[in-house]
Amino acid sequence: MKQEKIDQLKSILNKLEDIKHSQESVIDKINHVITDLFQHPDKKLEKAMEDAHQKSSDNVESVNEVLEELEMRINKAENEN
């Protein structure tokens, strides 16, 4: 694989890592809201935050899977050069 292609894949990898960090930040903020809801219960809001937390967690898992696969592809391509 040409170095240009490897560099392009590394750029995508960096963007995926940024997406992962953003999703982790969203999860952290959702957790703060959930914690606040212990003091001021609101069943509707609690349900919405639980759903949002699950979706964000699923997104992190999906991005992690893609990151791992892409890292392996990059490592394999670098070892071939």
UniProtKB/TrEMBL annotation:
Keyword set includes Coiled coil: yes
Coiled coil: 53-80
Keyword line: Coiled coil
Keyword Coiled coil: yes
Taxonomic path: Bacteria, Pseudomonadati, Bacteroidota, Flavobacteriia, Flavobacteriales
Organism: Gillisia hiemivivida
UniProt-recorded name of the protein: Uncharacterized protein
